[in-house]
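Hi everyone, sorry if this is the wrong subforum. Our group has a chain we'd like a structural model of before ordering constructs, and none of us has done structure prediction before. Sequence below.
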Amino acid sequence: MSDVAVVLDGSALLAYLAGQIAVGELIAEISDERRLVGVPAVCLSYARANADDEAAVAHLLLLTTSPTIAVLALGPDRAGEVDPVWRAGEFAQAAGGDLSVGHAIQAALEHGAYYATTDSKRVSAILPSGWGVLDLSL
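Answer:
Right subforum, don't worry. Here is the predicted structure as tokens:
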């Protein structure tokens, strides 16, 4: 079992920056379990690119310093491997070219983690049937 319990996609990070309480509560629950919240690096970059003010940017940077947050790289751990990058690209293609969604799906599958998003319909159509998707749009 991976220490990563849930993966936040770019939409979940933007919801967090907008003050969505459900995202903060989810992070706190995972922290209580002494597990990790995965933040794919591409999703972090996506959220940074879409943060609308300096306070949001600072808040996003502060989030990454939490011991509960694990920033997940897109590259392979060993030289010569391209499979994780390739798979993220395939998932991104299925998501209309959204690489942040592609990386988040690849990371959730790799870690056997729940997928947290505000766009559950789109990602549920790409993830394997019955995969745990947490809808944070409520």
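For your construct planning: Residues 99-111 form the longest helix (13 residues). DSSP finds seven helices and five strands in the chain.
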